[in-house]
Amino acid sequence: MPEVAGNTCLFTTFRGCTMVLILVGLGNIAAGISVFVSTDEFTWYNGSYIFLGFFLVLLAIFGHTTRASMGGLTFYLICLIVTFAAESGFTIGIILYTEYEEMLGEEYANVIRYTMIGACTLILLGIIVGWCYRNSLKYAIFYTSNENLIHPQTKEPEARPSVRREEMEKKYGLARKSTEA
User: Fold this and answer.
1) Considering only CA atoms, which of 122, 123, 100, 119 is closest in space to residue 110?
2) How many beta carbons lie within 10 A of that of residue 126, not counting itself?
3) pLDDT digits (tens, 9 = 90+) for 141-180
4) In a designed cystine with 21, which of 30, 60, 136, 149 is the match (CB 3.0 to 4.6 A)?
5) Which residue pairs, CB below 8 angstroms and at least 24 apart, start in 139-143?
6) How far apart are CA 67 and CA 164, in angstroms?
7) Average pLDDT per run of 10 along the chain, which is 181 residues long?
8) CA-to-CA distance for 48 and 44, rounded, in angstroms?
């Protein structure tokens, strides 16, 4: 069976979202390093920034390989949902963590918080687009594997001679020779 892919427009959008997720992951890593440099100590939120960023980059790279793999795409989406839940929980924890402002300053802490909310939004967008592409891939696989049931094959169409040859036969009253024995 040939390789089947879903809707091309959705796949292009899905690819764009995975590229954005790579940037989000790199941004998480950069935020973790920035907070580490600002506070001069490695704590749970620094490690969480860096770990989630690294995992998101690896996951987004894996997302690029799932064009025709239904199982791989499903696994990618499940991992992305888990990452979204972790990122959301971590973001809520940072918003509610009051000592965070004292360590970094109110303005810098708010920048980090809003950046994390934006990252959660972009991950959610990636999940939605990925799910839509997964559905288009599912339908494409279904219709390809059931093509004979949907459109039963009839006898092979006869090879039609060229239009020019037909005109010549009509004009000069030529009859075609039968190749059947």
Assistant:
1) 100
2) 28
3) 888 877 777 666 666 656 666 777 777 778 887 766 655 5
4) 60
5) 139/6, 140/4, 140/5, 140/6, 140/7, 141/4, 141/70
6) 44
7) 77 92 92 84 81 92 85 92 92 79 79 88 94 90 76 64 75 67 47
8) 6
Give the pLDDT score at 78.
95
Domain boundaries, the chain: 8-150
Distances (CA, A) of 42 to 9, 30, 99: 43, 14, 15
Grouping H, G, I as helix, E, B as strand and the rest as coil, residue 3 is coil
Smallest CA-to-CA distance from 47 within 37, 58, 36, 57 is with 36
pLDDT at position 56 is 93
Query: Model's pTM, two decimal places?
Result: 0.74
Give the torsion sign (CA, 41, 45, 48, 50): negative
Question: Which tokens is 156 given?
Answer: 């092979």
Alpha-carbon distance of 53 to 107, in angstroms, equals: 22
H helices present in 40-105, as ranges: 44-63, 70-96, 99-104
The one-letter code for the residue type at 119 is A
C-alpha–C-alpha distance, residues 62 and 83, integer Å: 14
Q: Is 112 exposed, middle or buried (0-12, 13-18, 19+ CB in 10 A)?
A: buried
- For residue 121, the 8-state DSSP code is H
